[in-house]
Prior knowledge:
The chain is mainly alpha-helical. Helix content is 59%, strand content 5%. It has a two-stranded antiparallel sheet.
Amino acid sequence: MDTQKLEQFKNLLTKERNQLAEQLKQFAKPNPQAGDDYNAQFPEHGDKEDENAAEIADYTVNLPLEHALEKQLQDVDVALKRIDEGKYGLCKYCHQPIEEKRLEARPTSSACISCKKQLTQEI
Length: 123
Protein backbone atom coordinates (compact mmCIF):
# COMPACT_ATOMS: atom_id res chain seq x y z
CA MET A 1 0.00 0.00 0.00
CA ASP A 2 1.36 3.40 -0.91
CA THR A 3 2.24 5.96 1.76
CA GLN A 4 -0.50 8.40 0.77
CA LYS A 5 -3.25 5.77 1.05
CA LEU A 6 -1.83 4.56 4.36
CA GLU A 7 -1.89 8.13 5.69
CA GLN A 8 -5.53 8.46 4.60
CA PHE A 9 -6.44 5.32 6.55
CA LYS A 10 -4.51 6.57 9.58
CA ASN A 11 -6.36 9.90 9.49
CA LEU A 12 -9.70 8.13 9.09
CA LEU A 13 -8.98 5.78 12.01
CA THR A 14 -7.74 8.62 14.22
CA LYS A 15 -10.92 10.59 13.50
CA GLU A 16 -13.03 7.51 14.27
CA ARG A 17 -11.11 6.96 17.52
CA ASN A 18 -11.81 10.52 18.64
CA GLN A 19 -15.51 10.20 17.79
CA LEU A 20 -15.84 6.93 19.72
CA ALA A 21 -14.09 8.41 22.75
CA GLU A 22 -16.42 11.43 22.66
CA GLN A 23 -19.49 9.19 22.42
CA LEU A 24 -18.30 7.17 25.40
CA LYS A 25 -17.63 10.28 27.48
CA GLN A 26 -21.29 11.30 27.16
CA PHE A 27 -22.38 8.56 29.57
CA ALA A 28 -19.23 6.81 30.83
CA LYS A 29 -16.02 7.72 32.59
CA PRO A 30 -12.58 6.33 31.70
CA ASN A 31 -11.30 3.67 34.06
CA PRO A 32 -8.03 5.08 35.50
CA GLN A 33 -6.58 1.56 35.95
CA ALA A 34 -7.20 0.41 32.37
CA GLY A 35 -6.43 2.33 29.18
CA ASP A 36 -9.46 2.12 26.92
CA ASP A 37 -11.87 0.77 29.51
CA TYR A 38 -14.85 2.92 30.41
CA ASN A 39 -17.46 2.56 33.12
CA ALA A 40 -21.03 3.55 32.36
CA GLN A 41 -22.25 6.00 34.97
CA PHE A 42 -25.55 5.47 36.71
CA PRO A 43 -27.60 8.54 35.76
CA GLU A 44 -29.15 10.75 38.43
CA HIS A 45 -32.60 12.00 37.47
CA GLY A 46 -33.99 12.46 40.97
CA ASP A 47 -35.51 10.57 43.91
CA LYS A 48 -39.08 10.02 42.71
CA GLU A 49 -40.19 6.55 41.59
CA ASP A 50 -40.59 7.52 37.96
CA GLU A 51 -37.18 9.21 38.00
CA ASN A 52 -35.61 6.11 39.54
CA ALA A 53 -37.23 3.97 36.84
CA ALA A 54 -35.81 6.32 34.17
CA GLU A 55 -32.34 6.00 35.73
CA ILE A 56 -32.52 2.22 35.57
CA ALA A 57 -33.82 2.30 32.00
CA ASP A 58 -31.04 4.67 30.88
CA TYR A 59 -28.37 2.60 32.59
CA THR A 60 -29.77 -0.58 31.03
CA VAL A 61 -29.43 1.01 27.59
CA ASN A 62 -26.02 2.56 28.26
CA LEU A 63 -24.25 -0.55 29.53
CA PRO A 64 -24.39 -2.62 26.31
CA LEU A 65 -23.72 0.54 24.31
CA GLU A 66 -20.59 1.11 26.39
CA HIS A 67 -19.36 -2.41 25.64
CA ALA A 68 -20.02 -2.04 21.90
CA LEU A 69 -18.24 1.32 21.69
CA GLU A 70 -15.30 0.01 23.74
CA LYS A 71 -14.95 -2.92 21.33
CA GLN A 72 -14.97 -0.56 18.36
CA LEU A 73 -12.39 1.63 20.08
CA GLN A 74 -10.16 -1.37 20.72
CA ASP A 75 -10.44 -2.42 17.05
CA VAL A 76 -9.42 1.08 15.95
CA ASP A 77 -6.47 1.08 18.36
CA VAL A 78 -5.30 -2.29 17.01
CA ALA A 79 -5.53 -0.97 13.43
CA LEU A 80 -3.55 2.15 14.35
CA LYS A 81 -0.92 -0.02 16.03
CA ARG A 82 -0.71 -2.17 12.88
CA ILE A 83 -0.08 1.01 10.86
CA ASP A 84 2.76 1.99 13.22
CA GLU A 85 4.24 -1.52 12.98
CA GLY A 86 4.02 -1.56 9.18
CA LYS A 87 1.52 -4.44 9.21
CA TYR A 88 -1.65 -2.57 8.24
CA GLY A 89 -3.35 -3.91 5.15
CA LEU A 90 -1.81 -7.36 5.53
CA CYS A 91 -3.89 -10.31 6.65
CA LYS A 92 -2.81 -11.44 10.11
CA TYR A 93 -3.40 -15.07 9.10
CA CYS A 94 -2.03 -15.54 5.57
CA HIS A 95 0.05 -12.32 5.47
CA GLN A 96 -1.31 -11.47 2.02
CA PRO A 97 -2.58 -7.96 1.24
CA ILE A 98 -6.17 -7.20 2.23
CA GLU A 99 -8.15 -5.77 -0.68
CA GLU A 100 -8.31 -2.00 -0.54
CA LYS A 101 -12.10 -2.10 -1.05
CA ARG A 102 -12.42 -4.19 2.12
CA LEU A 103 -10.31 -1.70 4.08
CA GLU A 104 -12.37 1.18 2.72
CA ALA A 105 -15.54 -0.55 3.88
CA ARG A 106 -14.07 -1.62 7.22
CA PRO A 107 -10.78 0.13 8.01
CA THR A 108 -10.27 -1.98 11.14
CA SER A 109 -10.14 -5.24 9.13
CA SER A 110 -7.15 -7.38 9.98
CA ALA A 111 -8.05 -10.40 7.84
CA CYS A 112 -8.58 -10.86 4.13
CA ILE A 113 -11.98 -12.04 2.95
CA SER A 114 -10.75 -15.57 2.26
CA CYS A 115 -9.34 -16.06 5.76
CA LYS A 116 -12.36 -14.38 7.36
CA LYS A 117 -14.69 -16.76 5.54
CA GLN A 118 -12.62 -19.72 6.71
CA LEU A 119 -12.70 -18.44 10.27
CA THR A 120 -16.46 -18.02 10.20
CA GLN A 121 -16.93 -21.20 8.15
CA GLU A 122 -18.77 -19.46 5.35
CA ILE A 123 -17.15 -21.49 2.59
